[in-house]
Design a protein that fits this description.
The protein is of the alpha/beta class. The protein is built from 11 helices and 8 strands. An 8-stranded mixed beta sheet has the order 1-2-4-3-5-6-7-8, with helices on both faces. α1 crosses α7 (204-221) and α6 packs across α7. The protein is globular and about 80 Å long. This is 2-succinyl-6-hydroxy-2,4-cyclohexadiene-1-carb oxylate synthase.
Length: 303
């Protein structure tokens, strides 16, 4: 009897060790900061290669003490302020090129926010929006303090940045935001992780185990629960107008996510599906429709 107890104890202990080590590995694999190479926004396109664009480096402290960095381009006093959030393991200088061009053309002010665990911002782990949604609110608070409570603030995000903007939409203190534009954002991080790990793991069981291990790791080392992160639920409880832009050939965040997000949204909403566009390729495939949609959305919500 005692031998059976010992065997079971060893099995349980080994299982606990495996789960602990496995969750740490999975979490670090998915969420740990990666080396990044700074990009130069001055090479946004061939016509701008020789343009010297000055920006102001902004540093704020997130509500949990993490250092956050952004780059502000002031074009015109009292013009709309666009706060842009890039995608996972990217930068505003890369993902933000289309928005940079559009805001420059229309003399809108632009802040390229650097997400935690990216670039010069602090933090060792990305949490796929679980903590970043509060960072988003901190950037909105910065804009209101600097430019006044009547500032015309818009949030634009691409991929994870779009999800972050939507996740922040139902937070207290976000009522001042005039509108949110999402391109290629996802419904939830765990669903996104599962979709993008299928090709490598090639087993539904292993995919599910991996996502569970990532979430356990997030709770232990990231101080957050990814299972409760759901952009659809946030949009069900927001009054902020939302524009969803998505490519119908997106395989990383399938277009079905865009329809679910749109159907969940209870505020004023619009949706633009770009045919033939993959993940974050909407502007590249149809720049005219993209720019017109962004321009009309912002123009209609500044009064």
């Amino acid at each position: 009897m005692s031998r059976v107890i010992i065997i079971y104890s060893v099995i349980i202990f080994a299982g606990v060790i495996f789960f602990f080590v496995g969750s740490r590995y999975a979490f670090q694999k998915a969420c740990k900061r990666r080396a990044s190479h700074p990009a130069n926004l001055e090479t946004a396109d061939d016509e701008q290669n020789s343009l010297s664009t000055k920006n102001e480096k902004i540093i704020i402290t997130a509500s949990d003490g993490v250092r956050l960095v952004g780059y502000f381009y002031e074009r015109k006093k009292n013009a709309p302020i666009v706060i842009f959030f890039h995608g996972l393991w990217s930068t505003g200088f890369v993902n933000g090129k289309p928005i940079y061009r559009i805001t420059e053309k229309h003399n809108w002010n632009l802040l390229l926010a650097t997400l935690r665990a990216h670039g010069e911002s602090g933090g060792e782990y990305s949490t796929f929006g679980a903590l970043e949604k509060y960072d988003c609110r901190d950037w909105v608070s910065w804009a209101r303090k600097r430019f006044g409570t009547e500032s015309l603030i818009f949030l634009i995000g691409i991929s994870m940045g779009g999800a972050i903007a939507m996740l922040s939409s139902n937070l207290e203190g976000m009522e001042c935001v005039r509108g949110i534009i999402d391109e290629g954002g996802y419904t939830s991080p765990l669903e996104m992780i599962e979709i993008n790990s299928r090709d490598k793991l090639q087993s539904k069981f292993l995919v599910r185990i991996f996502s569970e291990l990532v979430n356990v790791g997030a709770r232990i080392w990231g101080r957050c629960n990814l299972r409760g992160v759901d952009a659809c639920k946030a949009l069900m409880n927001t009054k902020i107008p939302v524009l969803i832009i998505h490519g119908d050939k997106d395989t990383q965040a399938p277009v079905a996510m865009a329809y679910r997000l749109n159907n969940s949204c209870k505020s004023e909403k619009q949706m633009l599906i770009i045919r033939g566009a993959g993940h974050t390729d909407c502007y590249k495939i149809d720049p005219l429709r993209y720019e017109n949609a962004v321009y009309e959305f912002i123009k209609n919500h500044i009064t």
